[in-house]
């Protein structure tokens, strides 16, 4: 994989990357048909070294090793050559290799005791990746605590091996997965579950091949870290490797074209709403055969960004071995596009001289910048407030711009009032939030304890660059002394309350009496009416 290649996000919830291979699968034990040109399929030269795995040659299990520099992905010229193997014996139980000086609690380890989806048995019992219907399936459950609960996984895939080359880098979040223990009981586990399916080349050869998963992350102490986990898969449904004749030269490597995105460039560093930009790409053939009928397509993944010309792809007749080609695509953005990172997808499709089809898909990220702006409802305080009273005051803030705002806070500052701040947090574009502020009325700070008081409502927030902004509203009210009642006033008030209560009871009695009289009159009228009907 090319280290300068952009980093697409691959969803691996049992999903499989589609590098574009559409060739039919070979049946077990049968050779593939010969090319129409009459040339024979070359056979790969396979050295005895199975690849850079720190474990013994009989141990196919994963071997994690921690490092602080993930380094570039090795190219086809430096990739370890696979070694043939006719035995599927899983060997001894794989165990994580500790860092020098002892294992650290900040590194990831393999969950060896449980069986996850896609696994026939646990790592402790000798798990091996499986090959079925032209795909190699790898399952790697990792335990550990990292910042953000996100890791970045980069499978290092050799261009000379049995796998169809592609960019399979993806970000993976920690999730709750259902697993089984040795007794078959289901349990829930918090793991980083790597599940990757790789398409196999049609003219693959039998043997055992390594795939190294490079995992980078930020550990819980805030330091960048990386580890390598190597799995080995055994191919038994491909071509048999011939031992060769008396020449002793051995088989040759499978040749195929491999196009990679060598570089990408945006015409502007940041994209403002309503601003056009150009995406320039350079692709390179790092394979062993010419790439023919090359098709390159670029498109925007999210709303607000779009191709300004059309969605037509660019076609190239051929890219030679070690050759490069440059293409560009014009884009435009809406004035109402939301700020943040947006994805652009680049799809590559090409053929070799035998008509075999290959493909790759890369996701690029562009940054859209918009100005932040907010609005809020004006606060209205009562004209007079009495010292010692408590009340609540609502506040409502809304994001009127196309960029998110962070740490939104409303603060009431006024002499004679004690109020708590209302924290509204993050507001996405076109969103609003409201809260109630509790206010306690005290006295003024000067010699005059009561009278007019002036203050302000402060609404503060941070934009995407971390810069703080504050908006103000001026407020005014009058703080008055609390009303102190004398004994005579209290007695008078109690008397009025009793009189009011007595009056209320009298009205209730009167209403009951009137209702009773109406009921009696109704009975008398009904009785007389009934007698009149009988007399007739």
Quick rundown:
With 536 residues, this protein is mostly beta strands.
Can you describe this structure?
With 536 residues, the protein is mainly β. The protein has three domains: 1-32 and 41-254, no CATH class; 257-369, Immunoglobulins (Immunoglobulin-like, Sandwich); 374-480, Immunoglobulins (Immunoglobulin-like), CATH 2.60.40.10. The chain has one helix and 28 strands. The protein has one helix spanning 487-535; strands at residues 65-67, 109-110, 130-132, 135-143, 150-156, 170-173, 175-180, 186-199, 207-218, 224-235, 259-266, 271-272, 277-285, 291-300, 305-307, 314-319, 324-333, 340-351, 357-369, 374-376, 384-386, 390-399, 405-414, 417-419, 422-427, 432-441, 451-462, 468-480. The chain has a five-stranded antiparallel beta sheet, with no helix packed on it. Strand 3 and strand 4 form a beta hairpin. The model is unreliable at 1-103 and 243-252 (pLDDT under 50).
* CA radius of gyration: 38 Å
Sheet of most strands = 5 strands, antiparallel
Strand order of the largest sheet: 1-10-9-5-6
What is the overall silhouette? elongated
First-residue to last-residue Cα separation: 112 Å
Note the total helix count: 1
Spans of at least 5 consecutive residues whose pLDDT stays below 50 are 1-103, 243-252
Tell me the number of strands: 28
**What is the helix/strand order?**
EEEEEEEEEEEEEEEEEEEEEEEEEEEEH
Number of domains: 3
Q: Compute the average pLDDT.
A: 78
Strand content: 35-45%
Please estimate the helix content: under 10%
Instruction: Provide the structure class.
Output: mainly beta
